[in-house]
# Entry
Amino acid sequence: SSSSASDVYKRQGSNQRQGSYAEYQLVDERIVGLKPQSISNAEAAALPLTSLTAYEMLFDRLKIQDTKQEKPIILVIGAAGGVGSITVQLLKVLTEFTVIATASRPETKAWLKEIGADFIVDHSQPLEQQILDLNIGSPHYVFSINGTGRYTQAIANLIAPQGHFGLIDDPENFVINPFKIKSVSIHWESMFTRSTFQTKDMTRQGDILNKISKLIDDHRIKTTLGQNLGTIKVEHVTQAHKMIESGQSIGKIVLEGF
# Structure
């Protein structure tokens, strides 16, 4: 959420505290960063959780900065939502990766094209042949944001030998055996890990948020705000949850004010 009290800081909290819809929240100073000056409170509120998830996955888990590939390729599955939208932008402004992004509707495909995806494929159709038809080679990295259970075998077939596969959802009966033959590394990301376990590197999250703020103010990336549904009240909270659960939202949904 966003309110006039958040003019100074762009905030994100811990899932160990209650109060997601509270007007005031207590947040550990190590996991906050400066709000971008060039955007509104609502636009800033759309960024922390998704940007931390995306940045940590790319640079702390997958460690894409250490790639030995001359022309690295990454496949981002479910790329038009909040996490995917910031992931694609970070890849395009901070790396030389070729980005294959997935979406299934005209409006989500248009959004991904707007934020810089190099290739867009339809995840409502079999992924494997679509990516083979691109004729650019196997992805060295795969970041699956949602629906991983439906795509696990396709990912195992597509990913390059010694590749890296990251996911953030919770597929039931997730079987990693198909990845053994290719020596694929598997990485899970939760942006709440550092705050939950009070890790020694918790200040990393504040640093990441400040980097995101600078990228925003330098006009290199833009907010992933999709819709602002208005004030924080039961009707709007219910509407937001229904939209998220539909799997058809673009970017982030924000509620603002009380």
